[in-house]
Amino acid sequence: MNRRTRARWLVLALAVGLPLASLANSFRAAPLPAPPELAGELPRASPPAEMALIHLPTGLTRRSAGFAYRGGAFSDRREFTMSAALVRHPRGDVLIDTGFGRDIDAHFGQMPLYFRATTRYEAATPAADQLDAAGYARERLRGILLTHAHWDHVSGVPDFPGTPVLVPAEERAFIAGGGSLTAVARGFAEVRYEAYRFDGGPYLGFPASHDLYGDGAIVVVPAFGHTPGSVIVFVTLPGERRYAFLGDLVWQLEGITERAERAWLLRMLADADAEGVRENLLRVAAIAARFPQIMLVPAHDARSFAALPRL
């Protein structure tokens, strides 16, 4: 851990009254217990032949593995991607999150002081501008499907005026009353939210689901914890290529492969319900063990996004 990083964590520790010894211990490896084996087979899906998946990188922050999960090395520097993913579907395309938008500088300025003091970001081309440059027809876009409503996932929403934003009721309420954590989303004018219900049955160990088009191609499950309405989006493409967009359930893939949650200080600052995060992390760990062919895509793991096609 370099001098600047130590100073930042020291300030945060003092701010919450955490002894330095406890702070250091909270970053040490402490894998969660292995979950029970997941039973059953992969859910059936009939993705249309025209389906496709496109990665739209919009920027990054530079963090360390130690920041992302317990047991990670602070010397292991990583690029935390800020991305959107476009899912092409003949019944209407879906944008999973938006990443950084055109007004990212203003949006970052609305974040709490402690966050701005410990975060540096680099903006790239917003998703809307990438699509416009490629000649994408906006009328194809059915909606923006948020994994959750934090600043770096919603910043591009105003760049798609009139496009519905799809969230469960729990996340819609969080946007309205989430304090500084949802100040960015709450400040958007004339956003048309569409709240959906988890009206489907269990899905890969999750108790309920929402099948967007009824064909198993885009299925959303509740993964509440990081925020009160966080979700995971499962996408199945032709040829049985399957993906799970995890949002911020974990920040790096090791959170699943090593069953490593965030350090205590990060859980306190970032997660609305740490126990909910832990429960859903273990659900995904069970999926990864039973079905390793499903590609797990944490929202900020550049390695996972690198395998996705780009415009």
Give a verbal description of the structure.
By secondary structure, the chain is an alpha/beta fold. It has a single domain (51-306), classed as 4-Layer Sandwich (Metallo-beta-lactamase, Chain A). It has helices spanning 3-16, 20-25, 65-68, 104-109, 113-117, 127-133, 151-154, 169-177, 183-186, 254-257, 264-270, 274-290, 302-306, and strands at 52-64, 77-88, 93-96, 121-123, 141-145, 165-168, 193-196, 210-211, 218-222, 231-237, 241-247, 295-298. Strands 4-1-2-3-5-6-7 form a seven-stranded mixed sheet. A hairpin with an 8-residue loop joins strand 9 (218-222) and strand 10 (231-237). It is globular and about 55 Å long.
Strands, helices and their partners?
Elements lengths: L2 H14 L3 H6 L26 E13 H4 L8 E12 L4 E4 L7 H6 L3 H5 L3 E3 L3 H7 L7 E5 L5 H4 L10 E4 H9 L5 H4 L6 E4 L13 E2 L6 E5 L8 E7 L3 E7 L6 H4 L6 H7 L3 H17 L4 E4 L3 H5 L5
Parallel strand pairs: 3-5, 5-6, 6-7, 11-12
Antiparallel strand pairs: 1-2, 1-4, 2-3, 8-9, 9-10, 10-11
Short description:
By secondary structure, this protein is α/β, with parallel strands linked by helices. It has 13 helices and 12 strands. The strands form 2 sheets. The protein has a 7-stranded mixed beta sheet with strand order 4-1-2-3-5-6-7. Strands 8-9-10-11-12 form a 5-stranded mixed beta sheet, with no helix packed on it.
